[in-house]
Amino acid sequence: MSKNKGYLGFVLHSHLPYVHHPEKEKCLEENWFFDALAETYLPLIGLMNKLYAEDIAYKLTISLSPTLTTMLMDELLQERFVAYLEDKIALGEKEIVRNKKDSDKLKLSKLYKEHYEDCLDKYENLYKRNIIKAFKTLEKAGCIEIITTAATHAFMPLYQELPQVIEAQIHTAVISYGRVFGQAPRGMWIPELGYFPGLGKYMKQHGIDYSFIAAHGQLFACKKSKYGVYAPVETSSGILAFSRDIPASRSVWSTDDGYPGDQVYRDARQDIGYELPFEYIGPHIFDEKIRINTGYKYYRIATGEAGHRYQPEKAEAKAIDHADNFIYQRIKQVKKLDKLMDRTPMVICPYDSEIFGKWWYEGIIWLEHVIRKAALSDDLEMISPSQYIDEYTENEKVEPIFSSWGNKGYASVWLGGANDWIYRHVHKASERMQELVARFPDESGLKKRVLDQAAREVLLAQASDWPFIMKTCLNADYAKMRVKRHLHNFNKIYDNLCRNTVNTEWLTRIEKENKIFPDLDYRIFGAGKVNE
Amino acid sequence: MTEERLQLLPEDFLREIAVKEGISINENIDKQDLIDLILEAIEEDRAENVMANNPAMQIKERKFDITLNEQFDFDEDQYPLPESYNETKIVMLLRDPAWAYTYWDIKDSEIASLKFGNLSGKLNLRVYEMGKAEFSKANIQDFFDIPVQIEDGSWYINLPRTGIYYCVELILKGSESEKVLCRSNFVKSPQWEVGELDLHKDLKGSGNDLLLVAGVYDLSAAEAAGKIPQRIISMIDSEFLE
């Protein structure tokens, strides 16, 4: 047993759907990626490098989705990100002039402008636009373990009757990880923690050792686990499933009783992009008419009240207090567990990476102090799931049930009145893709290009993000368009192949637009069967 | 969508938005009142979305929250999808332990026979409760029928029990005979309680302590809360951390 009373398994899930529009001069939805890079990923890498330089012992598990890694490596998006940062800096210069008589706002304007300048400097000069290399370096240093997730983040339980889809999602992800990181992943984040009995065998077949599930996926299983959610269970296929710890998750996730809801923190929604007249803000919003977040925010959270200025020093002090509280609660938790377990408990704390920075501005400060305090604690140690399963090779055999971390714990977020129409079509396209593999088992040249692109279009249509946006966002048109366009592209290829014709000009165009998974082989959809 | 943005839109377009939002309006309503009603409906939608989503989902929603304006003009007909794939088939998807979604398609020739030809009767979904994922008389524990129309194409089915298998058939029911048009895959509704845990025993003894720590604190409260796992677990959190 370890000298420590408990292990902390911090898991940061990093994913965005593939958004890439070379056909347009600019695209609003690309801001999902740019905002995340400027507000979360660059600050996070900066923090991890700083802690490493100070010789602070820590270990984070970071899942990087294949769609996100593809976008990080895309030259067009890299170019556009630089332009995005330059625009933010230009806005900062204007803000400094506008706020010259308001010292509080002026200080914040300078702070934000310096942040964007720092992002640009590091992105261009330190990382040389290669964020993947920055992550790899941290992994090599032993600070992080990088894992993967399904190729386009499909919600697996809704495809369980189509084994070729599950197989294609997992196999493509593993190949993509190998190409990007030069090795095989040990862990896989299941999109939306959407597990169904039997899913593990597909992962096992591709060398995955462990994954994560929702707590009730294990707690409601037919067999009770001896260690509750504080040790992984071995599924029927031999994959180890770590359960999300609810108390640790909730203190960060919850907007009401979690730390990020504190009124001293910056309000993410009050942004000058919505507040200032078009004549001023026009050049910095979308198409000079669609108001967007600009990153320049001067107010703190104050429910129902306006005019509460944001004070970064107070917010930083609070974030440190909240880090103290988190560590205090975890120590209390593991001390209780220590009396009940004959091995070191593993408390799994999974978060969406974008909580830190993008959504909870002070989240990066909180994370820094959690890591520092954990490193000093005699009761806690941060480790990765790989380290845990190397230490404890024997684990209880329990097959988790169908579950997810979505609302109500199952599939209702991804399957409801707003989005159920997609499944009929996406399922059919997936079946037809398998049919194409059977009809054209050994193609090369132009025909293979066509078939590979058909496979890309089907994978992209399967992303869980599209039904999620249809269900939860007021403007779901982009998500609807994406599903319909990928299906339309697939159906056009299918029809062309039935007629034995190929429009090479059109093919080249959609290859440029949807150029994810460059080494994809369409035959990946022909497998679908796994060894029991 | 902001008031500022709505002010820029023509009145006809505002009326279309109002229809989409399910707002009933009278002919003589003026533009400002129409805008107020739309903003009110949007705010209600937003509040409903917040209520309906757990914290993880609220955060994920914000990932895609880049503007309050409507930003995308998508012509629904730009990428048309087939209305039917001309096959007779039914698929069942499990949404949660209490609900399944089923969608079906019927071959054009069979639809013609149903409407005009020699196949007469009413279309029904027959939902089977099964002991195993294998269709046989011996495995059928119970079944019930749901009348549907050809045009429906899909249906949500309330599942009466958990921990068993279900499948559904699309059936044409005549006055004296029935024809099975197709049968779906099986789904298994997971149980909604902790495995092997006797709730009537003292939870603090006999190895159940870990479950208490893990989240199964008060299952009677869970039942009262409508059997939503997050609610079960959130109650536990506060208890455990006290």
Summarize the model shown.
The complex is a heterodimer of chains A (532) and B (242). Chain A is α/β, with parallel strands linked by helices. Chain A contains 19 helices and nine strands.
Structure description:
Chain A: Pfam families: BE_C, Glyco_hydro_57. Chain A: Substrate binds at residues 244, 261, 405, 465. The complex is a heterodimer of chains A (532) and B (242). Chain A has 532 residues and is of the alpha/beta class. In chain A, 50% of the residues lie in helices and 8% in strands. In chain A, strands 1, 2, 3, 4, 5, 6, 7, 8 and 9 form a nine-stranded mixed sheet that branches. Chain B is built from eight helices and eight strands, in the order ααααββαββββββααα. In chain B, strands 3, 4, 6, 7 and 8 form a five-stranded antiparallel sheet that branches. Chain B has a three-stranded antiparallel sheet with strand order 1-2-5, with no helix packed on it. The two termini of chain B are 43 Å apart. Classes of the chains: A alpha/beta (532), B alpha+beta (242). At the A-B interface, helix 1, helix 8, helix 9, helix 12 and helix 15 of A face helix 3, helix 4, strand 1, strand 2 and helix 6 of B.
Question: What labels describe this entry?
Answer:
heterodimer; A: 532 residues; alpha/beta; 7-stranded beta/alpha barrel; immunoglobulin/albumin-binding domain-like; 19 helices; 50% helix; globular; B: 242 residues; alpha+beta; Immunoglobulin-like; 3 domains; five-stranded antiparallel β-sheet; 8 helices; flat
